[in-house]
Every structure is written in structure tokens, then in C-alpha cells.
Amino acid sequence: MALSLRNMTQAECVSLIEQSRYGHLACCSNDQPYIVPVYFSYDKGILYSFSMPGQKVDWMRANNKVCLQIDHVSNVGWQSVIVMGKYEEFPDTDLLHSERLHAWSLLQRHSDWWEMGSLKPEPQAARSHSPHVFYGILIREMAGRAALSSDGTAKTV
User: Fold this and answer.
1) 118: region left, alpha or beta (phi > 0 left; psi from -120 to 50 alpha)
2) What is the pLDDT of residues 89-104, one digit of tens each?
3) Superfamily of the domain at 3-119+128-149
4) Over 50: is that where the pLDDT of 115 sits?
5) Which residues contact 93 (CB under 8 A, 6 or more apart)?
6) Measured between alpha carbons, how far is 41 from 105 in angstroms, rounded to an integer?
7) Strand 65-74 relative to strand 46-51: parallel, antiparallel, unpaired?
């Protein structure tokens, strides 16, 4: 049973991103890659996520070029999308407060959105500063591949 491999269209890539909320985020510092699982939400060309301060955030602050890999695997094949983008942090400042709230509103649509960030953020007073880092990945380019069983029968992938 053979798999038929093909490139995904941009519309198919966006569709997979819109249907997904989990991926693997890659960043790099001093020629050393670092990959971590993240939950995200997508809206209008931006992937929104959040984290507690740590290595991932430090590295993305130092080098804002990042990559996110998203996939869907089934018993008849798989799809995978790679997003190349730019990290942008949404600190709790007057200038970016609305973007931060937008990210939060998108992410909290799912009850477990905060699990990979370690601690669920509590609502903060308007002038209070939370240690939680809300950020976006501004998509610069994306590409995807898909493989499907050519005979349409179930296959363990």
C-alpha cells in the first residue's frame, strides 16, 4: 500500500492551521536549535500563544525568527505544515494591551490552553503586570505536504 505525496495549497495549509491548536515551535540561539510543544490560536495571519518566562522566550527575544510545525496524522495518511515567521511579544503595556487581550480571548476558547505555559493566568488589574508572556508569530511564509494512501485503505502511519 503506497502513499501518494503532494504539496499542499496555501488554502489547505491555512485550513490545517485553523483546525489545529498544537504544534512544535523552533527557535535558535548561537546556531543551536530548540524545539518545544506549544498550544496556539490562529487569526488573520498571526499565530497567538503564551508562555512563562524561560529559555524559549529568552531565545525568541534574542532572535525573532521562528518556525512552527503543525501536523495531522490519521490511519490513511498525514498532513504537515511548516510556518516561518517573526516572534512579536505583547507586553502588558498601554500600547499592546488590546493585542494581549485579543491573544488571551482566542487562547482561552479551549479549557486546557494554558497547560503548556505551566500556570493559568489570572485576570490582572488594568495596571498590574503579569509574568505571563503573550506573543504572536507573524506568518511570513508557509508550506505543507500531504501523504494519502493511494488505494484509500486504512494504513498505520
Assistant:
1) left
2) 987 666 555 665 656 5
3) Electron Transport, Fmn-binding Protein; Chain A (2.30.110.10)
4) no
5) none
6) 10
7) unpaired
